[in-house]
Amino acid sequence: MRDVNPINIPFKSSTVLLIACFIIALIVFMNCFNVVPVGHRGLFVRFGVVTSEPLEEGVYFKIPFITQLVTMNVKVQKWEDKTNAYSKDAQVVEVISSLNYALKKDQVKNIFQNVGKDFERILIPQVFQGLMKEVIGQYNAVDLVSQRDEGTQRIKEKLTAKLDELGIVVTNYEVNNLNFDDSFERAVKDKVIAVERAKEAKNKTIQIEEEAKQKIITAKAEAEAMKIRAIALSQNKNLVEYEAVKKWNGVLPHYTGGQIPFINVKSK
Are 60 and 69 in contact (CB under 8 A)? Predict the structure, then answer.
């Protein structure tokens, strides 16, 4: 049986111990430092209690295993939504929209303490959907199409005011699409076609009426001219001959006898 050197056993145990201590020390050391990345703000939390004001980007020392560094995104973010609402005339409208927002830097601590790190998932849908349904309910479905910009602006104004109270800045809001029930969309399409045809018919009627008026005016003018001319001819014999000359083509008649037109020969 092979002998075991008793001197090697404590040597190997001490080596393992040293390596373990080094690893633990390294973990503790690394846990002493945390980074607040660009576009974020940090908070020190100890046993569930926030112990600092918002920290800007950078590296920070903390007590390991006792203090936690929580980071909050303060960059502009985008939130998209698809919500069904009822119009004033009880039509179902699917509103697809997008919201650009950012957490106020001076409200990081307040938001984290009262709402939590996932504030956008909790606050924004609740506020947005309530306000959107309120505004959509003030319009008839047909008017939502023609007054879409006005409705979008009203939603944005209400969102901006409400979220500002909660510590969130709205940078932009857009309604990307409005979807209606298929039967309603067909009805709207038919109505639009009918309105366009009515406009065309009205324009045609106006055109015909205008043309008729012009003809009446022209006829009246011609009748008045003829009346004036008739009066003038009846009062002036020379004017009758002048009018006849104006209409003569200059060719003498081919028959003989009778008086040559327009030549008045008087005997002496």
Answer: yes
